[in-house]
């Protein structure tokens, strides 16, 4: 099965269109103000209005109040929600919209418990754990901690680059992969060469 690819941290229309041209299945928009890849809902909506069909747009939130989530979704018109904080499963379910949950991998036992807690998600995104940092660390984690029979499709994130993506996919065969910093020229600005190399590596 082909590995789906999400390019996250989109801040410019040219990066969005380049990712789509390279074969990206999804684009991520970060609505977390402390992030260097933060984008306003209005700017995200402007970019999304110019995209072709059959590309999933993903709204990334970190412990955002529900009223703000509703407002941002209405303005941006994102298709899918990605919860990247300490949100409960009940909170994630409450928006009547498809969602994925990011889990920061600390150890095998806590990961297994979290996977069961969020089994209503469309997929589970596995990212590196660093205390106090919700994501975007640019670090890989110990892939051997991933259970062999997860309850939901897995999206691999955390420190992926054009250099390591092929081995990651061959070893783990995830449903999808998610990259942000690994395909950037600088924070928030993508590198077209890296985007194309990453997507080729995900599906050699």
From TrEMBL:
CDD domains: PRAI (cd00405). GO terms for molecular function: phosphoribosylanthranilate isomerase activity. Residues 5-199 form the N-(5'phosphoribosyl) anthranilate isomerase (PRAI) domain. Its EC number is 5.3.1.24. It catalyses: N-(5-phospho-beta-D-ribosyl)anthranilate = 1-(2-carboxyphenylamino)-1-deoxy-D-ribulose 5-phosphate. The keyword Nuclease does not apply. It comes from the Bacteria. GO terms for biological process: L-tryptophan biosynthetic process. InterPro entries: Aldolase_TIM, PRAI_dom, RibuloseP-bd_barrel, TrpF_fam. Keywords: Amino-acid biosynthesis, Aromatic amino acid biosynthesis, Isomerase, Tryptophan biosynthesis. Transmembrane segments: none annotated. Pathway: Amino-acid biosynthesis; L-tryptophan biosynthesis; L-tryptophan from chorismate: step 3/5. Belongs to the TrpF family. HAMAP family: PRAI. This is N-(5'-phosphoribosyl)anthranilate isomerase. It comes from Oceanospirillum linum.
